[in-house]
Specification:
With 257 residues, the protein is α/β, with parallel strands linked by helices. It contains 6 helices and 12 strands. It folds into 2 domains: 61 residues, N-terminal domain of TfIIb; 176 residues, 3-Layer(aba) Sandwich (Rossmann fold). Strand 3, helix 4 and strand 4 form a beta-alpha-beta unit.
């Protein structure tokens, strides 16, 4: 019997495992981005910037759709994977401090990545840097999970690529800092070369709806449209939901250059 190996590390250091865990058909995300960007009059061949690009999972599909897409990430492991998938389109940068030419027609940051910026100052610096790389009035599509009262509900899913299968469980727990929480991930991989388990624990920032609203008011961006995540083709919400939950935000760059 193949031994069951357990590895405890950041899943961002295990690029292959992370990429398998998110081996979803990207149709929903591509459709969501297309709808959100079109609402801001951004269509191919617009130039887009992906913040925290990870393994560049969406870049080939968006470039095939006619967009000119570039992305950045801080993780060397993830970038090594991304450069194979999107050669010449990814670069290494810290989301809290980076600089690009003002050359982009739109930007996006998905899968709750924004919450890995643990301080408000880091989050503010990220938005300021993105805004500096966007044309005035250009959109930023931002996905994140807003704080919801009540006990946290674990999220589980399964993905498969070829003969490899990943079963993923993500749960959250409190941190002594009221603005942060721990995200605990367990990924069980079943593959021809053996079964293994990856355990990862990292902190994320908690964004309460009222705090995010005040934060955005002080940022270079204006909140234009809010959708419940996965419902971007439906009617927008009337602002940030008071009860929190997963949302997709369409922000507009107010910078004048």
């Amino acid at each position: 019997m193949t031994p069951h190996n357990v590895n405890s590390s950041s899943w961002y250091d295990e690029a292959h495992t992370y990429d398998l865990a998110f081996a979803f058909d990207p149709d929903r995300e591509i459709t969501m981005l297309t709808v959100a960007l079109a609402a801001a009059d951004v269509r191919p061949p617009a130039r887009l910037l992906e913040a925290m690009v990870g393994g560049a999972r969406l870049v080939p599909r968006l470039t095939s759709a006619g967009f000119d897409v570039f992305g950045f990430d801080m993780s060397q492991a993830m970038l090594g994977y991304a450069k194979q998938r999107a050669p010449g389109r990814v670069f290494r940068a810290d989301a809290a401090r980076f600089a690009t030419a003002r050359a982009f027609d739109g930007a996006y940051c998905l899968i709750d990545s924004f919450r890995y910026l643990l301080t408000e100052s880091a989050a503010s610096a990220c938005l300021t840097s993105i805004a500096a790389g966007l044309h005035p009035g250009a959109p930023l599509v931002l996905e994140l999970e807003l704080f919801s009262p009540g006990p946290p509900v674990p999220d589980t899913w399964t993905t498969q690529r070829g003969d490899a299968r990943a079963s993923v469980s993500v749960s959250s727990r409190a941190d002594p800092d009221d603005d942060l929480q721990w995200i605990d991930v367990v990924v069980n991989i079943n593959a021809p070369d053996g079964d293994r388990e990856l355990r990862s624990s990292q902190k994320q920032r908690i964004w309460r709806p009222d705090r995010l609203a005040a934060f955005l008011d002080a940022s270079p961006f204006t909140l234009e449209t809010t959708w419940r995540r996965t419902q971007e083709q439906g009617a927008p919400l009337d602002g940030l939901p008071r009860n929190g939950g997963p949302v997709t935000l369409l922000l507009r760059n107010g910078g004048d250059g």
